[in-house]
Amino acid sequence: MATKNLQLLLTESVDNLGIVGDVVTVRAGYARNFLLPRGLATEPSEGKLAALADKRAKAEAALEALTAERRKMIGKMEGLEITIERSCNDLGHLYGSVTQQDVSAALAKAGYTVKPREVRLPFTIKRVDSFDVLVKLASDMEASIKLHVKADRHIDEDERDEMEFDNEGNLIERSRRGNKGRSEAKPAESEPAAEAQDA
Fold first, then answer.
1. Domain boundaries 5-51, corresponding CATH code
2. Confidence band of 85 (pLDDT split at 50, 70, 90)
3. In the chain, where the domains are located
4. pLDDT above 90: residue 168
């Protein structure tokens, strides 16, 4: 059974729906359970549209100012670098993952107001490393930032150098030995033979 849609006139601006004075088409359940009980919308009519004209003009001016402010902010954000510290194991694997909310909070600390849904993570971030992250406020407003995920404690870098990960942060399994093991492998094989000849 198809969900019935309704046309309503917004009496207040509603995020992700429209500004006051817009006539929008919404699902009946959303209208009944959210918009109408809160006085955010009503049935459209010419008289109601006219009554909302001044309020709509103010809302349009506020929206233009907000858009200009956000455009300025996204321009400053291009190339920004932020750092998030996380607990991890000795191989740099995080206990959990870095989320859109985490990046949004880090940006807020840096003075940039960005909603979590405006942070576009390339994949699930679950290791210590640096990542390019897209922040997209609108189709024509986006910036690329650098996210550094660091361990909250010292990790033996020699051991981490031996690890390789794919693009999603999964460990690529391969036979490996520590840096010391590799550099000492040849002397370890040749020296005993030389000692046997001396003996």
1. 3.40.5.10
2. very high
3. 5-51, 75-175
4. no
Please report the DSSP string for 88-156 in residue order: B-TTSEEEEEE-HHHHHHHHHHTT----GGGEE-SS-EEESEEEEEEEEEETTEEEEEEEEEEESS---
Burial (Cβ within 10 Å: 0-12, 13-18, ≥19) of residue 185: exposed
Residue range 75-175 forms a domain whose CATH class is alpha beta
- The pLDDT tens digits for 97-109 are 999 999 999 999 9
The model's pLDDT over 18-56, given as tens digits with 9 standing for 90+, comes to 999 999 999 999 999 999 999 999 999 999 989 999 999
Alpha-carbon span 96 to 82, nearest angstrom: 19
How many angstroms separate the CA atoms of 128 and 155, rounded? 10
- pLDDT value at residue 196: 43
The strand pairing partners of 52, in sequence order, are none
Angle (CA) 128-130-133 rounded to 5° is: 120
